[in-house]
Design goal:
The chain is mainly alpha-helical. It has 9 helices and 5 strands, in the order H-H-E-E-H-H-H-E-E-H-H-H-H-E. The strands form 2 sheets. The chain has a 3-stranded antiparallel β-sheet. A two-stranded antiparallel sheet has the order 1-2. Helix 2 crosses helix 4, helix 2 packs across helix 9 and helix 7 packs antiparallel against helix 8.
């Protein structure tokens, strides 16, 4: 039998005459919900973690919105920002993956492709847990009361759109392939083939995004779902075990891959603006 764990001290047994109507007296206590919205019996600083996470995630979001609206300094040499890849507008110049829109498109090329990586992250189980807690307080943290009395799940608009996650995931495979191609092109350095700091950043961004996609629940279900017995499908069983191994690290890949995109974009943007030169770690003429 499991041993009960005490989260905090029980409400003191006191009368209303001693502490007034605000006192959580024993005869008025009926469980955590009786404390009201955002109240809890936890005695630790539970709000520090969501506050720090919210500040970090909010900062990345603000930067991504700003960077995605820019029309220049998103590529230099063999480097292109992951926010703009694949680049499908004529304004991408020599960095265009394929030109699907002519010069009449005057807005940022990133606006044409950002919907896919934003969509897969916004509908991701892990990120949903994070921003549901941060911005909707649903719930704020474990054993902390919610500010609302009713829960309708994700069966209504707009939350029903979370069911599009598997489709965003499939489309993100194309983005991952393009990031891989970008990392290969990043080895082309002035004067030969080599490795610059930009090469490392772009390559790590591609690897981290692949890790994020392959550790996703959608991939795990794709390779191992809908089977009666794994014994009849040894290849899919092997893939499921691999996906399950990565799945335990899905949160890690989520937090590594997202900041890497912003850091890589900022680095390429500064390079393009002439703020500094890209240091060569290796160069073969």
């Amino acid at each position: 039998m499991a041993t009960p764990v005490s989260i905090g001290p029980s409400p003191p047994a006191a009368s209303a005459a001693n502490c007034g109507r605000s006192c959580p007296t024993a005869d008025r206590y009926h469980g955590p919900g009786s404390f009201g919205p955002l109240k809890t019996r936890r005695i630790d600083r539970w709000w520090l973690s969501p506050l720090g996470t919210g500040t970090f995630l909010g900062s990345l979001t603000v930067y991504a919105v700003w960077a995605g609206l820019q029309t220049g300094h998103f590529a230099v040499g063999g480097y292109i920002s992951p926010l703009y890849s694949p680049c499908i507008a004529a304004d991408c110049g020599s960095h265009a993956t394929v030109v699907l829109l002519g010069s009449w498109w005057r807005l940022s090329p990133a606006l044409l492709v950002m919907a896919i990586p934003v969509g897969v992250r916004a509908t991701c189980y892990y990120y949903r847990k994070v921003y549901y807690r941060l911005f909707w307080l649903s719930p704020p943290a474990c054993a902390v009361a919610e500010p609302r009395q009713h829960y309708s799940g994700e069966s209504r608009f707009p939350l029903v759109l979370q069911n599009l996650h598997r489709y965003f995931w499939a489309a993100s495979l194309l983005v991952a392939v393009m990031l891989t191609a970008d990392s290969v092109r990043a080895f082309g350095q002035p004067g030969g083939v080599g490795v610059g700091v930009g090469t490392v950043l772009i390559s790590f961004t591609a690897v981290a995004f692949w890790g994020y996609l392959l550790s996703c629940h959608a991939f795990r279900h794709l390779v191992g779902g809908g089977l009666v017995a794994f014994s009849a499908h040894p290849i899919r069983h092997l893939g499921w075990r691999f996906a399950s191994f990565l799945n335990t690290r899905h949160g890690l890949f989520a937090w590594i891959s997202l900041p890497l995109v912003m850091v890589t974009d900022a680095y390429i943007r500064l390079l393009s603006a002439g703020s500094f030169a890209d240091p060569h770690l290796l160069l073969f003429h």
